[in-house]
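Example record

Each entry pairs one chain with its bound ligand, nicotinamide-adenine-dinucleotide.
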Amino acid sequence: MRKILLATEKPFSAAAVAEIRQIVEQAGDVLETLEKYADPAQLAAAAATADALIVRSDKVTREIIAAAPKLKIIVRAGAGYDNLDLEACTAAGITAMNTPGQNSNAVAELVIGLMTYMARNQFAPGTGSELRGKKLGIHAYGNVGRLVAAIGKGAGMTVEAYDPFVGNDTMKQEGVTPLKTVEELYSTADYISIHIPATAETKHSINHPLLARLPKNATIINTARKEVIDEQGLIQLMNERPDIKYAADVAPDADEEFKTFGTRYYATKKKIGAETSEANINAGLAAARQIVEYFTTGNQRYKVN
Ligand code: NAD
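Structure tokens for the complex follow.
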């Protein structure tokens, strides 16, 4: 009997946990939960006897991995896996996976909500603007980017995207104009929606020279990761350009400085992009199924290391 640990500092809904438990127990395994823990030492202690681990944004560091000698697989219930130390996983022979696509719709709907919120001056009295007829630039056409594009088109926006790893035909078939360079995207879009993963290569890549290309009255929506933005570069631009707005799912490190921009800036207090009951259930269940399949059939489809 294997022990599968569900370690969530920010817990899943009770309904999602019940369904995860059902999948695990049906496979003859045991589910243990560690929720709302305050100290990584608690995670290390709980992981010490676990064969598999499911986490959300929880940090799985080298130290946690060293404390868990039985671990064979870690699944990040979500898309971004920058919270897992992949090198340490590989060195310990652990398979690391994510659950791509399971929370994308939740994030895409939040993007559209943030665009409207910013277009209407954070619902303050006064005259705002509409999304219809505006140009939406999708920075990375993955699972979330594609859904944002589809909803944006439904709202009457024209949509363009930059993603060097997705074929032009895919975008064209979905009514999206593929762009050859990221500079072109930032030079033309009224709304930029950021969906690049946080990697060594992308961190701070959205910098002042790129942002300075934005057309008048542009709004940047970042539901990816705060690390991909060069915060000081963006602050400099917003000081130089009173027409530029920024909204983010989770506050940047320089939140206090950004707050001086008033209704031109908004950040969620905690990351809420994937916080819908539907996304909780989709991602949690997918993680449990991937673990059961890994142990029963060796399926490693969503391996990221
Ligand atoms: P995904 O893996 O489906 O798509 C990522 C896309 O980025 C891929 O199409 C890839 O080709 C593209 N890409 C990679 N490097 C690039 C680069 N340098 N330039 C342009 N494109 C590049 O991921 P997703 O589900 O669409 O999620 C995107 C990101 O959003 C995740 O990495 C995660 O950090 C973040 N996210 C946040 C929340 C939230 O709660 N706010 C939830 C889900 C995902």
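Residues 60 and 84 are 5 Å apart (CA to CA).
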